[in-house]
Amino acid sequence: MSNKLVMKYRDELDKSYGVAGMALGLSVYDAADLFTSITLDADGPGCIQFTPEFYFAGNPRLSPTGSWKYILGHFRISVGLAVANALCRRMVLDNDKVDGALRDELFNAAFQDGRDYCQLERDEVEPIFDEAFDNMKRLFGNGQVRKAMDAFADALQQRRTLSHIDVTDILQQLDLI
Questions:
Q1: Does the reported pTM lie above 0.85?
Q2: In 78, 103, 140, 159, which residue has its Cα 20 to 30 A from 87's Cα atom?
């Protein structure tokens, strides 16, 4: 999401948990085929190197409805990744509960992006956001997932950049996929 406040990191440890959360989020959203690597050496959403297919520039072979579904699907993924980033940091790294202020900040960023990129109204963004928020809150509330994310963030800090294959291997070893 475009809101820089959502992905403002306190330090590299915080960033490693945010990126780790997004890596797991890609798997949760069945979007693992849309990235080539993750890295701590980039800023914000640039920490994930997406494949060209992620950046939809239009396709004359797709109907307008097909194009809209494609764009909306990628908006869902973007919302899920931003939520995964923030909740992994808050719930796993900080071992803290999610409060209304964080939820509101995340929703406002999702709404702004939904309005700007998809011309969605607030009531159209709400179910997309609520689904992502509820799923990620449940996921990062699981004790086994939390331990696995500690190991994943540690591996990311040690190696700095992980290829798609590395991410998949680590997530499999940690029983996250």
A1: yes
A2: 159
